[in-house]
């Protein structure tokens, strides 16, 4: 390989932001290189995040259903856990996905380069391999798509040993089911991975600083959802600030203080999962030396066109502001590629769905009721429970509801929140509606196949502007 290669676009990082940006840019005729320090493409999402966790969530949900739902469906079975096989399923799923990205790179003639990228000057990226060899890439444009890393707990020293004190990276690969697990942080990662190990037999206690789980979600949703998780055996300590996590005997000890004041408490567990958020990852990128500005949270500052303050250097995904979601990064990647190819790329940040892949799932798009109240927007609410939906009854998935929020004057849908089986699929009905500026009446008058769970979405829309039929 020549010492210097030139490209229209060099992307650092091959997660959903970087690899999708690369494919779109290549489709639009740009020459593209992607620099990735991991041995496989796909970043956190494909290697240690979304994809492996979904494999375990699905498998553990099946295990749980076989125990708890099969008898009521007239099926007799005695399921037993084969954890190594379940982990092998997860690994196979990851491999299929990361290999898929490598295939797409080849198909689109994208140059993948394994090594750590550093911006040495605008238009210049130095790549260092694990063995220490270096090469320089020349680029008309550089895209930083280096993602995020586990943030830990500010002010609390943590030593992740991967066995007793773990992050999400380790919690997808525990070699045995812990008897007890404390999850620090009642956010998305804590509830998803806590659900996995809870279903496989661990007694899970979630310690959360706020007085609700899933902090940014609609309060209606998080209150109902917490009750559902509690029925599944998950325990909650809310309004509890974790101030210490340390190994103790064969497990670990968590110390927390009630936020309202009061004595410090401790919890012992075989495994403590720390899931208190992620932070932008920019280590070793050379941002300071080339003068790329970051904000107070270490995120790369960008304008509305993903441009940093240094001409020719762009950034997308978890490393910039906004929700740390794979699909937000993907959409930014597509929009940036379009802009670099002379087209009008755009991301509508008002319509970014968010899904928690627990059982039942939680999904949301647009504004919450609390946000509308705070903004002084007058709104109407329409709700419909899955307990009144025929298909949900047939499948024993009657937990949960659909909730729409619409502008009181115009009926334009401003938000949709769903707790229920398949919520993560159904939410897109609301997302498409909102992308087109649709009203609850538009959806309520759209014929829906019967019997489907989606009929509850339509009924909730009907409830927003008129009355539902089935409740
Ligand atoms: P998060 O921000 O969703 O939740 C962290 C929670 O920890 C918050 O509720 C916070 O109040 C709590 N916390 C912080 N310090 C604490 C302390 N000292 N004591 C007790 N509680 C404390 O972060 P999480 O779950 O780690 O996820 C990281 C990122 O990854 C998020 O942006 C999330 O959206 C994303 N993600 C998304 C997924 C999805 O869309 N399904 C799946 C997994 C991650």
Structure explained in plain terms:
There is one protein chain. The protein is an alpha/beta fold and 471 residues long. The protein has three domains: 5-150 and 279-340, 3-Layer(bba) Sandwich (FAD/NAD(P)-binding domain); 165-276, FAD/NAD(P)-binding domain (3-Layer(bba) Sandwich), CATH 3.50.50.60; 354-465, Enolase-like, domain 1, CATH 3.30.390. It has 14 helices and 22 strands. Strands 1, 2, 3, 4, 5, 6 and 17 form a seven-stranded mixed β-sheet that branches. Helix 1 packs parallel to helix 9, helix 3 runs antiparallel to helix 4 and helix 3 (50-68) crosses helix 6. The mean pLDDT is 97. The structure holds 1,4-dihydronicotinamide adenine dinucleotide (NAI).
Task: Return residue spans where pLDDT drops below 50 for at least 5 consecutive residues.
Answer: none
- The Rg value, from CA coordinates, equals 24 Å
Shape: globular
CATH topology of the largest domain: FAD/NAD(P)-binding domain
Q: What is the strand content? A: 25-35%
Question: Architecture of the largest domain, CATH level 2?
Answer: 3-Layer(bba) Sandwich
Secondary-structure blueprint of this entry?
Elements: E1 4-12, H1 16-27, E2 32-36, H2 43-47, H3 50-68, H4 83-107, E3 111-114, E4 116-121, E5 124-128, E6 134-144, E7 148-150, E8 165-166, H5 168-171, E9 180-184, H6 188-199, E10 203-207, H7 219-231, E11 235-237, E12 240-248, E13 251-258, E14 265-269, E15 271-274, E16 278-280, H8 287-290, E17 313-315, H9 326-340, E18 354-356, E19 361-366, H10 369-374, E20 379-385, H11 390-394, E21 401-407, E22 413-420, H12 423-435, H13 440-444, H14 454-465
Helix pairs in contact: 1-9, 3-4, 3-6
The structure holds 1,4-dihydronicotinamide adenine dinucleotide.
1,4-dihydronicotinamide adenine dinucleotide is lined by residues 153, 184-190, 192, 207-210, 215, 241-242, 275-278, 323-325, 354-357.
């Amino acid at each position: 390989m020549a010492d210097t290669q030139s490209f229209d676009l060099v992307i650092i990082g091959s997660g959903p932001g970087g690899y999708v940006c690369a494919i779109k840019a290549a489709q639009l005729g740009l020459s593209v290189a992607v620099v990735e320090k991991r041995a496989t493409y796909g970043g956190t999402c494909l290697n240690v995040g979304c994809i492996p966790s979904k494999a375990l969530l699905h498998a553990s949900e099946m295990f749980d259903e076989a125990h708890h739902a099969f008898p009521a469906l007239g099926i007799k079975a005695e399921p037993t856990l084969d954890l190594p096989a379940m982990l092998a399923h997860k690994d196979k799923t990851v491999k299929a996905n990361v290999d898929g990205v490598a295939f797409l790179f080849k198909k689109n003639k994208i140059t993948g380069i394994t090594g750590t990228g550093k911006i040495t000057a605008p238009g210049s990226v130095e790549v260092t391999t694990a063995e220490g060899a270096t090469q320089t890439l020349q680029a008309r444009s550089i895209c930083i798509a280096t993602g995020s890393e586990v943030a830990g707990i500010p002010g609390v020293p943590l030593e992740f040993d991967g066995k007793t004190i773990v992050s999400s990276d380790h919690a997808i690969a525990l070699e045995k089911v812990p008897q007890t697990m404390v999850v620090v942080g009642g956010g998305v990662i804590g509830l998803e991975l806590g659900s996995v190990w809870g279903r496989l037999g661990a007694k899970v206690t979630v310690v959360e600083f706020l007085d609700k789980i899933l902090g940014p979600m609609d309060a209606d949703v998080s209150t109902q959802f917490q009750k559902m998780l509690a029925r599944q055996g998950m325990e909650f300590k809310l309004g509890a600030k974790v101030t210490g996590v340390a190994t103790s005997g064969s497990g670990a000890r968590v110390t927390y203080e009630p936020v309202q004041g009061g004595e410090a408490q401790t919890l012992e567990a075989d495994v403590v999962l720390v899931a208190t958020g992620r932070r932008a990852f920019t280590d070793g990128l050379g941002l300071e030396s080339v003068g790329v500005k970051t904000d107070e949270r270490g995120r790369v500052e960008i304008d509305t066109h993903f441009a940093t303050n240094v001409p020719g250097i762009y950034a997308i995904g978890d490393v910039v502001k906004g929700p740390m979601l794979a699909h937000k990064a993907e959409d930014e990647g597509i929009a940036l590629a379009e802009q670099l190819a002379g087209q009008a790329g755009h991301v509508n940040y008002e319509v970014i769905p968010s899904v928690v892949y627990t059982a039942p799932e939680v999904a949301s798009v647009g504004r919450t009721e609390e946000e509308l109240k705070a903004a002084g927007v007058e709104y109407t609410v329409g709700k419909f429970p899955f307990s009144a939906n025929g298909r949900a009854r047939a499948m024993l998935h009657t937990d949960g509801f659909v909730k729409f929020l619409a502008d009181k004057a115009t009926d334009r849908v401003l938000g949709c929140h769903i707790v229920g089986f398949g919520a993560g699929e159904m939410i897109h009905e609301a997302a498409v509606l909102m992308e087109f500026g649709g009203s609850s009446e538009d959806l309520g008058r759209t014929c829906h196949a019967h019997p489907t769970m989606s009929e509850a979405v339509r009924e909730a829309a009907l409830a927003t502007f008129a009355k539902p039929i089935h409740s």
